[in-house]
User: What shape does this take?
Amino acid sequence: VSLAVRSPRQDFEAELSAELWDLSARWLRRGLRLPAGIDLVSNDYLGLAGHPALRERMREALLEGPAGSGGSRLLRGHHAAFDRIEERLAAFSGQPAALLFGSGWAANLGLLPAIAGRDDLVLSDALNHASLIDGVRLSGARRIVYPHLDVQAVRDGLRQGGARRRFVVTESVFSMDGDLAPLRELAEAAEEHGALLIVDEAHATGLYGSGRVEALGLQQRVLASVHTGGKALGCAGAWVAGPAALRDTLLQRARSFVFSTAPLPALCAGLDAALDVLAAEPWRAVECLRKAGLLRGALREAGLTAPGEAPIVPLVVGGNAAALALQDALQAEGFDVRAIRPPTVPEGTARLRLTVRTPVADADLLRLAGAAGRSLR
Ligand SMILES: Cc1ncc(COP(=O)(O)O)c(C=O)c1O
Assistant: This one.
């Protein structure tokens, strides 16, 4: 008899496989699928990812400069292109200064731990993005998760004494629901209690100017806004905009900035071109918001609910298997839609998260609403 001794690696592989099977059994196992069909799922809201101006400018930058940055910005990775784009991003955001990160994830992971610690209190919306949640956790600050959009709960939380600094953290357009944070009311609540407001504009940047902070004229009433370059701007990266002292503090202490290779310098050219396109082609955002209204109206006519107002339209179906079935039915009709399941969204609220994009024709949005109505009835 041969006694096959399994190595620790083989044992662990078997353990992982069992866990993966368990995910499959609960309709929660993820896989990769290449883009196919009409794009109603990407965050390329305005169609800038394929825009000739961005591609051309990034190509030129690659031909003229190095491919890679060479290191952390604090070492040899800093290039003139970063200074130029940060100045422009700050002005675009209506703030004195901006610091570029490799992604929104990195920006949010770096921001809170750089400015908050054990003696501080952070109030965080219950539906905030995972990167905000992880940033708060890493900071070590005491955390109060307030019910989604609930300004009264924010006020109540801020009344609690004992904290050195108090922060309120929210998305401006919620990424899975397409609804809008009451930024003016949150700014008021924060001011009443001497707290600092931080706004993640990931899904607002490019659609509402630099974001809803700017659209509402709240630039001086927030501590910082976080903007991503990988969504409506069509490239990648992210920046934190705020006072110069905040930028300089992040440069010292944001670990995702300090201990990470700077983005490709060509990213600066892409972001620069994206801002040019936003200025030259404002119809793109106008159209996107109009189309979002069109799709919501058509979904309601088809007997479905379509909450929210931004170009993110959630079709909440509840169960994981049901969300996958709706995804498959709509994919079969030529639409690229994907089911969003826990833990990305709360248990029992699996959904299709439709993104309305400027390049999608009105007729396709109407056809989608009809197909979704038929599938769900
Ligand atoms: C609200 C929010 N913040 C931050 C991020 C992270 O940004 P990025 O994709 O650039 O890492 C995302 C995107 O996934 C997001 O939806």
Notes: The chain has a mean pLDDT of 97. The longest strand covers residues 312-318. Residues 103-105, 108, 129, 131, 171, 175, 200, 202-203, 228, 230, 238 surround pyridoxal-5'-phosphate (CB under 6 Å). Residues 283-301 form the longest helix (19 residues).
